[in-house]
Amino acid sequence: MATPGTSVVSTSISPSTSASFHDRFTSSSFAFTNPGVRVPKVLHPIDNDDLKLLLLENISQEAVKAFQAHGFHVDHSAKAMSEDELVEKIGQYHAIGIRSKTKITERVIKAASKLLVIGCFCIGTNQVDLSTAARAGIPVFNSPFSNSRSVAELVISEIVALSRQLFERAYEMRTGTWNKQSKGCWEIRGKTLGIVGYGHIGSQLSVLAESFGMRVLFHDVIPLMPLGQARQVDSLETLLKESDFVTLHVPELPETTNMISEKELKSTKKGAYLINNARGKVVDIPALIEALRSKHLAGAAIDVYPAEPGANGAPFDDQLNSWSSALRSIPNVILTPHIGGSTEEAQRMIGEEVSMAVTRYLTSGSTLGAVNFPEVDLRAIAPEQMNNVRICHVHINQPGVLRQVNDILSPYNVEKQYSDSKGDIAYLMADIADVSPRDVNSLQAKISKTNANILTRLLA
Ligand SMILES: O=C(O)C(=O)COP(=O)(O)O
């Protein structure tokens, strides 16, 4: 593991010695042991052979290794970067990998003249200006569920710890005081857990909680199939009124900002507990402090905050969040430094998954799984089609584009073509037969000059 505070560490291995994407995933070794299997043509971007990637926030070494195996140059850092640092550095990179702290703002995207793709090595993508990225032709990939088990397990531990005032007792022992008591300490069996947001984490948690004998209610904006004996309730208010524990698993959106505020906290049962491992802005913390001080709530576990430090060792104080010392002073409040998804298992899986999506986009143009982009993919080019070229054309979604592009392609046979749109952005992929190597650059130049062009890449 990289130590906190280390600067960017730069590594690359030569493309000639590295295994290609297709070697690994359609697998020459598989073909070797299975002589009937055909290995597709391996594609390379025609105009940026030396792809440079910046990985921030201590992204797993699995990702570093996977990128290096494709010959990419990787700069890795344990820290997040500020907007100013990013603006200064991002211009040299073709891809960036971040977790939940680094903000990719419009200003950063404007400075990112070479940037082709953003990988969020986490679930959340609220830290990226997704629409500006899409308009700049930059797809954003994330890992929609690989850390959900880790978060669900943490929530179970917090339910038990809050219910038994575990952190209070453990703190007293650490500071030399014996304080054995049962008052206000409960089993969780038979208690009601209210899950707000029944996605990958909420539904996983629902199963774990039932195995502890809890009754599970959930609220979601769409009707969903309840797992086990869980029951969907039609309003947040009903959930708050009936639950002994309320846990939040919603994304950061304008609609979820301060979703739990004074009014909602007043709707909770007296003696209930609140758990937030979702996003800091979902809970109005001064209102939570009030609900805890008045003893309406019996405790809270908080893992995420409106402002979080960018590196380990940095202070978590009132300068960062004005209420931080007030929150720290309240008994039976468990504060953790955004560790919900921080397990070896989750980080390894996320590293593999997001590096694969980013690599697939860079080397084959596929946007399957992108969160801000039309999802387009083409089947591989057969090995005998050596002079086939793949066109990846991101453009403004307006009439007449396909006619213009297909006019340019008319001297060639279009082997396959697929196009889709999402809002203002459209993406066309096409495989063109028998393009002589000397025509490849002019083909790219012609398509790039069409009036709706955002980004045209050719892979050959
Ligand atoms: O997956 C998420 O969205 C998380 O909140 C975890 O973020 P992290 O990778 O720990 O910065």
Question: What is the assembly state of the chains in this entry?
Answer: single chain
Bound molecules: 2-oxo-3-(phosphonooxy)propanoic acid
Quickly name the level 1 CATH class of the largest domain: Alpha Beta
By CATH, the topology of the largest domain is Rossmann fold
Radius of gyration: 25 Å
Classify the helix fraction into a percent range: 25-40%
- CATH architecture of the largest domain, by name, is 3-Layer(aba) Sandwich
Count helical runs: 15
Give the full name of the CATH homologous superfamily of the largest domain: NAD(P)-binding Rossmann-like Domain
The structure class reads alpha/beta
How many strand elements?
17
Distance between the termini: 37 Å
Biggest sheet descriptor = 7 strands, parallel
How big a fraction of the residues is strand?
Answer: 15-25%
Mean of residue pLDDT values: 92
Poorly predicted tracts of residues = 1-6, 13-33
For the biggest β-sheet, the strand order reads 9-8-7-10-11-12-13
Q: What's the shape?
A: elongated
What would you note in describing this structure?
Residues 1-20 have a biased composition (Low complexity). This is Phosphoglycerate dehydrogenase. Residues 54-372 form the D-isomer specific 2-hydroxyacid dehydrogenase catalytic domain. Residues 158-340 form the D-isomer specific 2-hydroxyacid dehydrogenase NAD-binding domain. Helix 2 (61-68) runs parallel beside helix 13 and helix 6 (148-163) crosses helix 8 (200-211). This protein has 460 residues and is an alpha/beta fold. The protein has three domains: 44-147 and 343-376, NAD(P)-binding Rossmann-like Domain (Rossmann fold); 148-335, Rossmann fold, CATH 3.40.50; 381-460, ACT domain (Alpha-Beta Plaits, 2-Layer Sandwich). It has helices spanning 21-33, 61-68, 83-89, 106-111, 130-135, 148-163, 166-174, 200-211, 236-242, 262-267, 285-293, 324-328, 344-364, 401-409, 440-448, and strands spanning 9-12, 52-55, 73-76, 95-98, 117-120, 140-141, 192-196, 215-219, 231-232, 245-248, 272-276, 297-302, 333-335, 389-396, 414-422, 425-432, 453-459. The chain starts with 8 loop residues before the first strand and ends with a strand. Helix 8 (200-211) links the parallel strand 7 and strand 8. Bound molecules: 2-oxo-3-(phosphonooxy)propanoic acid. 2-oxo-3-(phosphonooxy)propanoic acid (HPV) is lined by residues 99-101, 122-124, 147, 338, 340-342. 2-oxo-3-(phosphonooxy)propanoic acid binds next to loops.
